């Protein structure tokens, strides 16, 4: 299908989108606007081209700038912007899209072994879609730019339910096969995306994903809140110690929303939940929960009368004013925890010294180094090892 016809088809559908591009492929923005009617589809186009601009856009420094993971973070941030930019009289969230594209393309003076690759992600209320391609043929920058631009347009068209083959018009060789993955929202999760991470106008909520449904048998609960990106042996060791200490199962909780980063996309969420399930041990593990509660003050509302397992790094952030609700201070937060019956079981982290202010000692229990000694393994290290395989 010719690009002009395809763009007209995109503009004829009901989709509205925010598009974020870095590394190359900005011709896609021009193509969407070249033939008229672009205002029906494009809410905003963003080009966070420098590393610092991209860091600011997604709220963190990515482990790798040209990666499927970074494209998904860009798409989720773009989707959140689309929610904010949609006209108040519409509010038809099911037609909104966030598009993220990041790539490494040919440039002068590059090293011979440098990989050229493209990653496009699409975030909607219903699903997360990822498209990745490693360029195998040698091409000049202009040719690669054209491939990237057309690939972005094709992904938009497919996401707008237009009949198009994903490699149509891209000029990819038969050996260059895109890796495509799509994950649908778990039932009850999608509405959490409609609330920004820093919005406190909505009551915290949760979805139980799986487990033994054992939390209803005990008034007191042991909650392990974390990103689990991925879950690893030290997480299990901490959970086992906590379960033995209190004689209760440990429930795992992942917040879909973050205070200073975009929400977790559905592909990443599935990966994190799968990493817990893969290591699931029913003798000390309970349920898995997904919440829209990035702050412990919010978790306390969902899970009252609970002991929360935290590492020393989380302990340092727990009473940082940056992570308070609007209007809270240390004493109102402590009173909130008191009325909700909340305390914390703190595990050491290698290289982090734990200092507990006197004001909060009454809700803190520190696990001794005789019971648990951290070996320094982290989810970040595991992700880097997986990338290098």
TrEMBL record:
Signal peptide start and end residues: none
Transferase recorded as keyword: yes
GO molecular function: ATP hydrolysis activity; nicotinamide-nucleotide adenylyltransferase activity
Keywords per UniProt: Nucleotidyltransferase, Transferase
Residue span, Cytidyltransferase-like domain: 223-384
InterPro entries registered for this protein in UniProt: CinA-like_C, Cyt_trans-like, Rossmann-like_a/b/a_fold
Key word 4Fe-4S present: no
Cellular component GO terms, alphabetical: cytoplasm
Name the UniProt record assigns to this protein: Nicotinic acid mononucleotide adenylyltransferase
Organism this protein belongs to: Methanomethylovorans hollandica (strain DSM 15978 / NBRC 107637 / DMS1)
